[in-house]
Amino acid sequence: MPLVPTEQVVAAGPVCAFNAISLEHAEAIVAGAEAAGRPVILQISENAVRFHDSRLAPIAAATRAVAAMAAVDVALHLDHVVSPDLWRQAPEHGFGSIMVDASRLAYQENVATTRAVAEFAHARGLWVEAELGTIGGKDGEPPVDPHAPGSRTDPAEAASYVAQTGVDALAVAVGSTHAMTTRSAVLDHSLIGRLRAAVAVPLVLHGSSGVPDAELRRAVLGGIIKVNIGTALNVAFTDTVRDTLAARPELVDPRRYLASARGAMAETVTRFCRLVSGDATPQPTVAGRALAVTES
Fold first, then answer.
1. Residue 79 annotated as catalytic
2. Were both Cys, which of 133, 206, 245, 276 would link to 153 (CB 3.0–4.6 Å)?
3. Catalytic residue, candidates 53, 73, 79, 239
4. Are the C-beta atoms of 115 and 165 separated by less than 8 Å?
5. How many structural domains does the chain have?
């Protein structure tokens, strides 16, 4: 089916948004969402574009083609964009939304940059997400101490920021960190509730790969609408490739190990979709790694 607007998918939320790096990622995300029977947001980040020689067109075209054959609603989102040259390309490549990342700028610069992107995007029918607070863990930077002064999103500042920028969704810093490979983050659920009361637009949780099942489900019940997941797919992919090649070191045809890695990612997508939507029971963690969720 054709791509649907991100706004439409989020309005029917809560919804998972998964980051795609390769064609196998995109195929796994759609297959996993289909197995869960849930809509999904397929994200391509600026870092993923950089991996593809800084060319957006090929990976965007491949991803659109996979989404067009999906049996569930799929929206296409351009994630963590810093470069103006990149966000300006979003409309021509079928993206329904942009996440402008001005979080490293001083507050007033963040506001001005984000407002400019929102004006550009809204004039072309695109939905805009931004980030306020310090989530950390991107581009090899160290994780942020969630208790450090200024690391959490302040509700009053968030309300003012949304009003000044005109964004359609806000990614908030409430205790998660990008690029976590263990699920040990502890979220500030009281803060999520206060942000939900203060901000009229949907709240987004970045770094959700590192959040245990029960914490993640509680965050959704507390007001998180869009749940971003990337590293969990890469862990599933890489672990499967390592295990396959260790068991069969003679393999040289990448299809022999990419197929199983793609399947592992699809299973991860299905589990998260069911958890976030409430179709699965949260499971405890063992040594920081989550057990598979079970259908309820």
1. yes
2. 133
3. 79
4. yes
5. 1
